[in-house]
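Repro case for the chain-ordering regression, as requested:
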Amino acid sequence: MGLEYVRITTGFEDYMPKDYVDLVKYGQFGKEYDIQDLGTFKELVEEHPMCAGCFMAYFIRVFYASLPNPEDSIVIGTAGCARLQLSQAAVPFIYGNYGDTNAVASGLKRALEIRFPDKNKDVIVVAGDGGLMDIGFGMTMHSWFRRERFTTIMVDNEVYGNTGGQESGMSPKGVQLKMAPKGKKFDKINAVELAKAAGCVYVARIAPTNPKRLAKTIKRAILAARHFGPTFIHAYTSCNIEYSIPTEKVLEDARNREKNDFAFYEWMSDEVKGFFEQVETKKKEAQEVK
Amino acid sequence: MYYVAEAKADKCSTYKCNQCVLFCPEPNTLMFLQAKNFAYVNQARCKGCAICVYVCGDLLKRNCIEMVMTTVSE
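-- result from build under test --
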């Protein structure tokens, strides 16, 4: 971790894999790219085995492109689709046992604060609805009660997509799935309100239909977690296989869901709001000086 | 034989737009050449989901990307 670990030792440039050389030369390490520049720089995440047209894959691509300090970040994931792609990036990835991601992240963040007291090390949990709201529910909630300073991102595909389509706590009411043919009898868990009640300082619900807003939300969640307390993003990342969405209609589906039950929602505590206002005025001043 | 996306460079370069690049789920696949102002596809990495075709054709009505058949190159 840190820029000195990324750099290639002099004389070894010709022997390193091309992808790695590209990553150091044209990648995100030590530079700040805008999300609108996607496609013009080498991204942190590499080829991955996620399905064609998977919107979770898209979310994770934008997530890595919007990391404020990739060289000082650690990503934690768990069983589920997301880990297939999370582990293919040039950012350290830790695979928690199913459900204990937030407990692992708590310990890791505390250890990093002791080991690097003068640096900001970002710990980010990216896990599915099963890992955070079903099986990992207790550990997720308790990390928020303890006000641990890291970001939790829930990539919600509303189903256990890896194991054949069982219903999860986040599946919408009435939905019939391959392994739940009777239809779900209960409502979708209101994760955003739970996070607010449990003590998160920044909470957002988002469907990935606007890359600029998505990147801004992810950046804000990570920055707020650095200084204030737990932050949470609930992202809609459809499963086009289990919900039988044709791949070319995946974005249309996200746009429709955004109009109905996944409208963009952002909430932050007053101190976080004050912090972002300060940051934004500083940015504006810096631009005016230029 | 399988489907991959192909961007028409001459048509694409007439617009100031890189929206398809921003919506591709695959990293380092749909790229943008700033100097010549057009998008191009790294076909060996394309999985053929056609989200870019939806963005360029259905949403923006520009039709600069289409799906084409390709074979594995040795």
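Ordering looks correct now. Chain B has a mean pLDDT of 92.
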